[in-house]
UniProtKB/TrEMBL annotation:
It comes from the Eukaryota. Belongs to the TTC39 family. One of its GO terms (biological process) is lipid metabolic process. It comes from Oncorhynchus tshawytscha (Chinook salmon). InterPro entries: IML2/TPR_39 (IPR019412), TPR-like_helical_dom_sf (IPR011990). This is Tetratricopeptide repeat protein 39B. Keywords: Lipid metabolism, Repeat, TPR repeat.
């Protein structure tokens, strides 16, 4: 439901959103008569949804949609299940037709859910602005309608962000806020229902939905820097990491329809968010525990195989990960978007091993098949080709310079803003637009760092040593360059930072410290890659943490946060700094982790 200016009343006390503007197509506002309500009861709807979810996890995507489709206009759970699957597909393809189809389905889901929400007259809506009505006056069906409405609204908001306009961005933000308010009220209702002697039969399903909503909001908002989080808390949001983890763990442990959804939220956090936007210290033990029952139940499920492979990758067992990613690809052919996720992971897995030809094959497939971020894919492919011997590049038929020149034209924008990684790639690729192109130095290794890949490679000492050899060769070539370009100092500092990372993961902390301090001391000589100084300062802080000097670590990392502005990927570093500082109070210095089995 969208905000409609003067014609809108937000009844925040109840979490129910009532509108005086009947023109909003997402808000039928109780104009649907009782006779249009479904004859399907709530228990049967939940059972059908569970069957559809099982079909989905067994790679029978069309069968799952076929089961839900006939009842989607008459049953809230059929509607939300159907639209959720289409929304997931749209999020993976970025195809306009898929996005439009998903948006239509979500709009219909909101209308279906609205049929079952508590009817509130205009007088009641105005009264509830001043006098809070008890949340326990909703029926079991009305409570589930609130929950389903919040889920559909949140998904519609996520797809709204794919539109490039600022208006759509604002609308998406308002939908998210409305969704959170409803989840909060559902939490109150769930607590009341739990304390009643005559608990409703679907309480477990309802509670797990609340767990997922409240948990995911708290967990993911907790990732935001404190300044942003304080603003969001003032707007009514909450971002408590421990609350988020606790809620999602409760939801994952419940034997309910949404158990798998809470599990997937936790896996996404542990296996992606904490790696890319955190310090890289993923909770692999919990991830294994969460996934184990689904491996037994859905051994050939594409999503399960994918996460099984991702866990192996983060453990440093690249060979087993590659095997599982290939099994995931072979498991189904209907949703090729899952193949693209595997191509991305396989590209990195082979890059970590410096098997550049294999890495190129998967980067090339991404360029040809996926629309997620063509600028990043093309830059990544060109970067990988730059690591290969010239004769091997010729065999591919690729022109590296032309690929780099394409990057700028392929960039996407969200709400008129550039995507940080694409902006970084385009800036690096600018070297090839000059009349006399200046070659990038080990760009694929630099991109490994951008995606925090050194925290993964560091678990394989022999591969870390191999990467270090590559870096030192580049270091020697720069040192002996008879005609240094305007990028010379930048390239030298980038190489020193990457060298310091390898040395730190190998336990050579004094040598690593020299590398990081060299970059920091070169601040006034760096012309283009200004990100190198704050990032090196952050890495130096992590080195101090590894040595056990938490005071010095905190001061150094805070300096990186406070004293540098306007550099590439600034927000990404702020996320990592926020995560690092949050761990300082309980951290114990650790040696580089050893490789563990999958």
């Amino acid at each position: 439901m969208e905000i409609g200016g003067f014609g809108t009343i937000l009844c925040m006390q109840t979490g129910l959103i009532c509108s005086l503007d009947m023109m909003d197509p997402e808000d039928p506002f109780l104009l649907v008569p009782d006779k249009m309500k479904s004859q399907m009861d709530l228990e049967t709807a939940l059972q059908d949804s569970a069957k559809a979810l099982d079909l989905f996890l067994n790679n029978r995507f069309s069968d799952a949609l076929d089961l839900l489709r006939p009842w989607r206009s008459q049953s809230m759970y059929h509607a939300v299940g159907y639209s959720s699957m289409l929304a997931m597909q749209a999020g993976m393809t970025f195809e306009p037709k898929d996005v439009e189809k998903a948006m239509t389905a979500l709009k219909e889901s909101l209308q279906t859910c609205q049929m079952f929400r508590k009817k509130t007259t205009m007088v009641e809506a105005i009264t509830e602005m001043f006098y809070k009505q008890p949340a326990d006056n909703l029926t079991e069906e009305e409570m589930h309608a609130e929950l389903c409405y919040a889920e559909a609204l949140l998904q519609k908001a996520a797809l709204t962000f794919l539109d490039e306009s600022m208006i759509s961005f604002i609308k998406g933000g308002m939908k998210i806020r409305n969704s959170f308010l409803i989840y909060k009220e559902c939490d109150v209702m769930s607590t009341m229902a739990k304390n009643q002697s005559d608990q409703m039969s679907t309480q477990t399903h309802f509670r797990s939905g609340v767990n997922m909503g409240i948990g995911s909001f708290n967990l993911y908002l907790s990732l935001l820097p404190s300044k942003v989080l304080r603003l969001l808390e003032w707007m009514g949001f909450s971002g408590d990491r421990e609350v988020g983890l606790s809620q999602l763990r409760e939801g994952a442990a419940s034997n309910s329809l949404r158990s798998i959804l809470s599990t997937l939220c936790l896996l996404m956090y542990h296996l992606y968010i904490s790696v890319i936007l955190g310090t890289g210290e993923a909770n692999l033990e919990e991830s294994d525990f969460l996934l184990e029952p689904y491996i037994e139940k859905f051994p050939n499920g594409a999503l399960i195989l994918f996460y099984q492979a991702r866990i192996a990758l983060l453990k440093g067992n690249f060979e087993f990960a590659q095997k599982k990613f290939l099994e995931c690809i072979a498991a189904q052919q209907e949703w090729r978007q899952i193949h693209h996720l595997c191509y991305w992971e396989l590209m990195w897995s082979y890059s970590f091993q410096q098997d550049w030809l294999e890495a190129y094959q998967y980067a090339d497939l991404l360029c040809k098949e996926s629309k997620w971020s063509q600028a990043v894919y093309v830059f990544q492919k060109a970067s990988i080709l730059s690591m290969m011997p010239e004769e091997e590049v010729k065999k591919t038929g690729e022109n590296v310079e032309q690929l780099f020149r394409q990057v700028e034209s392929l960039r996407l924008r969200i709400a008129g803003k550039s995507i940080p990684t694409e902006k970084f790639a385009a800036k690096k690729a600018q070297r090839y637009s000059a009349a006399t192109p200046v070659t990038l130095v080990i760009p694929a290794v630099e991109m490994i760092y951008v995606w925090n890949g050194f925290t993964i490679i560091g678990k394989r000492p022999e591969l870390t040593e191999s990467i270090l050899v590559t870096i030192e060769k580049a270091e020697e070539q720069l040192k002996n360059d008879p005609n240094p370009s305007e990028y010379h100092v930048d390239d030298q500092c980038m190489v020193q930072m990457l060298k310091g990372l390898c040395l730190r993961h190998l336990g050579h902390l004094d040598q690593a410290q020299l590398c990081f301090t060299h970059v920091i001391s070169s601040e006034n000589r760096i012309k283009h890659d200004c990100y190198l100084v704050p990032y090196s300062m952050y890495e130096l802080g992590l080195l101090y943490k590894q040595q056990g000097d938490l005071g010095k670590a905190t001061t150094t990392i805070e300096n990186a946060k406070l004293n540098y502005k306007g550099y590439s990927m600034e927000s990404r570093l702020h996320f990592r700094i926020h995560a690092a500082l949050n761990t300082m109070g309980t951290s114990v210095a650790k040696l580089p982790p050893h490789r563990t089995s999958a």
